[in-house]
Amino acid sequence: IVTTSAFGEGIDVPDIRHVVLYHLSFSKEEHNQLAGRAGRDGKQAECLLLYDKSDIAVNTYLIGHDQPDLEWKDKELKLLDKMIVYCNTSGCLRKYLLEYFGERVASSCNNCGNCSQAKNATWRRFLKL
Length: 129
Fold this sequence. Notes:
This protein has 129 residues and is mainly α. The chain has helices spanning 5-8, 28-35, 53-64, 70-88, 93-100, 122-127; strands at 18-21, 46-49. The two termini are 22 Å apart.
């Protein structure tokens, strides 16, 4: 299934195994919503985020473009900054997200892209990385 984010958020297909996000989300909440399309049946699934530093400039522009509400703008820019930190962390991505949403996590997952030593993950084979 190929969708836009607006259509994709309405998709409730339980056996989606792969989600590819081709642009930096504005926040971890948005990213989590989009990535959460995969594995809704509880089975293993993978999400790959493709982004470029230019996405940061685009998102910053879109947040600030003609926005008179400086309080809203400041809040959105802080959310974007937290997403950028998430994208650049070398630690456990699952732990980072769970702690962001208020859960205490004692250890790394040993399964996310930063923890896993499985360099032959399905998405790597798909992209021939």
